[in-house]
Design goal:
Layout lengths: L1 E4 L2 E6 L11 E5 L10 H8 L4 E5 L15 H14 L5 E6 L1 H12 L4 E7 L9 H9 L1 H11 L17 H10 L5 H11 L3 H7 L4 E6 L11 H14 L5 E5 L6 H4 L1 H13 L5
Parallel strand pairs: 3-4, 3-5, 5-6, 6-7, 7-8
Antiparallel strand pairs: 1-2, 2-4
């Protein structure tokens, strides 16, 4: 469906069901050079099992118009404005990679609006190597090759065909190829510059779930340790459940497609758990 956010149309996939903000709402936020379609398996399941779903295309991505926003903070503000435009009082946020930083920042900025936050493939700081930044700026096809190679587990046989006619590896490359020129360097620059992750974790006032890929070369699990520790401390201070940590075995960065069942199971358990300790 289309939602006017700050007078600019934004696209959000509703999982094949009419959107009803009176039901429990789950908002999915994609990462750099992606769009709503990376969440198709998880979002569609939840939409047909008791939840209202918004899998958004961030500005300048997918079917959403306008320029891509240049900072994690700006995207977080946009996401909260989208909740207002869609008539959502409270929501669970599920973010991947760059989208996980956005979800964390939004949850810290609007503690009364966010019921839970699930952070998939997150690291902080989320620094991008100089070589990859240069490729994103000067040779985007080369950058897409590098990202796609590093985003999948080395143990997953390439091209990663779990069923006839389906290729995890090729599918991810095509999603990246259909984004607008310049989006990749914009997104990477935003991730690289974001400095508020620890402060956001310290201010978090809702339950948190971390889903990490055991063989993730883009955001290795070790780079989420301090973030998890800080979320654990803020949860204890607020009387909330300790953050959950799920590590998908033999899985790279694109957890949504490499280990879709493991991610869905983690989300289902998280959504069903009590909000208070």
């Amino acid at each position: 469906m289309l939602v006017d956010v700050n007078a600019t149309p934004a696209w959000a996939y509703t999982g094949g069901c009419p959107f009803d903000p009176a039901r429990p709402v789950v908002v999915f936020v994609h990462g750099a050079q992606h769009d709503h379609s990376v969440w198709i398996l998880q979002s569609r399941y939840l939409a047909h099992h008791g939840y209202s779903v918004l899998a958004v295309d961030l500005p300048g991505h997918g079917r959403s118009t306008g320029p891509a926003l240049g900072s994690i903070e700006a995207i977080a503000d946009w996401l909260l404005a989208l909740l207002d435009a869609a008539g959502v009082a409270r929501a669970t946020l599920v973010g991947h990679s760059m989208g996980a930083l956005v979800a964390l920042e939004a949850a810290a900025r609007a503690p009364t609006r966010i019921e839970r936050v699930a952070l998939v493939g997150i690291a902080f700081p989320m620094k991008v190597s100089d070589a990859l930044l240069a490729a994103a700026r000067d040779d985007e096809p080369r950058a897409l090759d590098l990202i796609n190679f590093w985003s999948h587990s080395t143990i997953n046989p390439r091209p990663g065909c779990p069923a006839p006619g389906f290729s995890v590896f090729v599918q991810n490359r095509r999603v990246m190829e259909r984004q607008r020129p310049g989006v990749l360097i914009n997104d990477f620059t935003a991730c690289n510059a974001y400095a508020g992750g620890f402060a956001a974790a310290d201010a978090l006032a809702c339950p948190a779930l971390f889903v990490l890929g055991q063989r993730d070369s883009m955001t290795p699990p070790r780079q989420a340790r301090e973030l998890i520790d800080r979320c654990r401390a803020s949860a204890a201070a607020a009387g909330l459940p300790a953050p959950r940590r799920v590590e998908a075995p033999d899985c790279g960065h694109v957890i949504m497609s490499e280990r879709p069942d493991a991610l869905l199971a983690a989300l289902r358990d998280f959504l069903a758990a009590p909000v208070v300790a």
